[in-house]
Amino acid sequence: EAPSAFSNSNKREEENDFQPIQRASMEDVDVQPSIDLADFSLDATDESGSAEEEDQHVDGQILDDSKPEKPSIDPTLEKSPSSPPIDPVLTPEDRRRDPRYGHRLFDHFIVVGPHLDEDNKPKLQKSPSASQIQQREDEYHPHLIFSYPSGKPVTSLKIGSFCFPENIRMRTLSRRASGSNLVELRYAQPHLSNPGQCHIFRLAGEDFTMYGICVTKEELLEDPPSFVPSPPQRYTQPWSMRVTPRCYCFLSRFPFFALHYEVLLNVIAQDRLIRITEGLPGNEPEVRQAVGELPLDILHKYYATEIPTPGGSLSFHLAGQPHPRQFTYPLGDEEARLIGDWVLVTVFKCMSLEHLLRLYTILLLEKPVVIVSHNLSMLSSVVLSAIPMLRPFVWQGLLIPVLPQLLLDVLQAPVPYIIGTPCLNTHVEAVIFDLDNHKILYSNIKTPPRLPEIKRLYQNIQPYYRLLYKDHPTLHNPHRTSLEEQAAARGIIESLQGYGNWLAAKIKSHYSTTHLDLSNLRNRDQLNHAFIQTISSSNRNFITQFLTTQYFSVYCSQLFK
Questions:
Q1: Among 187, 193, 185, 188, CA closest to 220
Q2: Which residue, 144, 146, 138, 140, is CA-closest to 160?
Q3: What mean pLDDT do residues 149-162 have?
């Protein structure tokens, strides 16, 4: 059971504003990447009332997916062409200036787990945080037990904490007389079907961003991967064995998540095949032929694979597969596209549309956001979804999909952020999205104003959304996303990006007609005041706050550079 992380008396919960999503099939909605913006307006009076009236209605209430209100909303979806999202195409010269230019598909492959001493005992001391959380298992700091390439050190000392943000908890396995539970532990593959056993973390540096693509699986403590150089004592004790999770991870500058995960799972599968063939009769060459490519063979080949140019493709042959895997490097805004393709279906299945639009509003206003869930896959997906969801704008604050418990002080930073953490046991001034309990809590922060034209945006998105969100949150395995799910997610994200473009166009139409120098803050404030006076009272609060964000500053600087 999750510890009580939301006991602060200053935290508020919020009431649901919309009707529940109804079930639908692909025949009910023609999923096309379009959005109707013709009737959207900032100077029209919002039928729902002013922002002040909304705050009075919402403040102190509960936003809970289990008890939605049911206002009447016209489900008609009118469609017309919209301006496409900003999608810059980089030239070869731009690519050469990219700090990733000349690098490999991945920088490191690592395995993280507890470290063993010569007596096969965990070498690390128990974590200081273990005494703060009630638990039955022993808890240990994560340790880097293997890295590839061997001659290239992993520079980050805390990298293991992003693989195990709550440290490593071991358990004891009592072996049955039949040995069935031991066989299941060694040879079963629950990580292929359990989406909670894979997640992504992101480390942003001054010159580049590093992604961690992780798969976590339980193994015997004394039985590490076959490619770890120092062979341990194999399990020989008959009845009591220690079980620990280990994390297999690619560190890469390129968000090629689908490709990275396929290769990562292939490495794990070949290691499993080696374990299966260990006891087979026959000489070593015969067993080697039965296994095929060893895990290190796959890593060598993948590390040597050349990165295609944008718009190009690569071919990689996975061990045991009859046909090579084809991957295309997208043109344009690669980060938003590749991240969106991997995480968005997961997000749209685990969050109601009401909560998604609330998150979108809060992020547009650059309020600090904390996402909380013990499911690391869901946690990292929701945080990363901010990147494609906010286009054409670019998030200017901290973005940390998984924050280790030992770094929770980051939540006190006086800057905008969206941060994911499996457990929140510290005071924050932020909007908290509790994914496990499907609630939003306001911790010492004012309820944000209503998003302009939110009802029409809701109507545009709802037909796509109800194909994914089936009346209640569900877990999703991104390895198994269907074409229908991809189409629905594409409709949702293009609707949101179209809304962002509409908002940007409204700003541009006002500020691009001036002859004033907008690098002068006094001139910009004067134009801001004039622009706000053209906005209806129901939308004025949102626009006033939006004009103070870093989005707006960056947008103006790029527009009039």
A1: 185
A2: 144
A3: 85
Q: Check if the beta carbon of residue 376 is closer than 8 Å to that of residue 500.
A: no
Count Cβ neighbours within 10 Å for each residue of 317-344 and write b for 16 or more, e otherwise: ebbeeeeeeebebeeebebbbbbbbbbb
Beta-strand relationship, 369-372 and 417-421: parallel
CA 387 to chain centre: 9
Two tokens, residue 105 = 């598909």
3-state secondary structure 438-470: CEEEEECCCCCCCCCCHHHHHHHHHHHHCCCCC
Place of tokens 């901290």: 398
Q: Which of 265, 462, 464, 252 is nearest to 345 (CA)?
A: 464
Give the whole-angstrom CA distance, residue 416 versus residue 448: 14
pLDDT of residue 286: 64
Q: Phi first, then psi: what are they for 483, rounded to 5°?
A: -65, -35
Rounded CA gap, 364 and 500, in Å? 9
SS3 content of the chain, % helix, strand, coil (to 5): 35, 15, 45
Helix, strand or coil, per DSSP, at residue 495: helix
Element (H, E) at 122: none
Alpha carbon distance, N-terminus to C-terminus of the chain: 53
Rounded Cα–Cα distance for residues 410 and 397 (Å): 12
324 vs 316: CA distance, rounded Å: 5
Is residue 428 within 8 A of residue 411, CB to CB? The reply is yes
Query: How far is C-alpha 230 from the geometric centre of its chain's CA atoms?
Result: 35
Q: At what angle do helices 180-187 and 257-277 cross, to 10 degrees?
A: 140
Residues whose CB falls within 8 Å of the CB of residue 60, separated by 6 or more in sequence, listed in order: 12
pLDDT in tens, 428-486: 999 999 999 999 999 888 899 999 999 999 999 999 999 999 877 888 888 788 889 99
Dihedral angle computed from the Cα positions of residues 517, 522, 528 and 534, in that order, rounded to the nearest 10 degrees: -90
Cα 74 to Cα 135: distance, rounded to the nearest angstrom:
50
Interhelix angle for 334-350 vs 376-384, to 10°? 130
Q: Are 353 and 18 in contact (CB under 8 A)?
A: yes
**CA atoms of 397 and 418, how far apart (whole Å):** 8
Sorting pLDDT into bands at 50, 70 and 90, what band is 53? very low
Residue type, 274: I
The CA R_g of the chain, rounded to the nearest whole Å, is 25
Report pLDDT for 51: 36
Residue 330's alpha-carbon distances to 82, 127, 341, 371, in angstroms, are: 22, 43, 11, 29
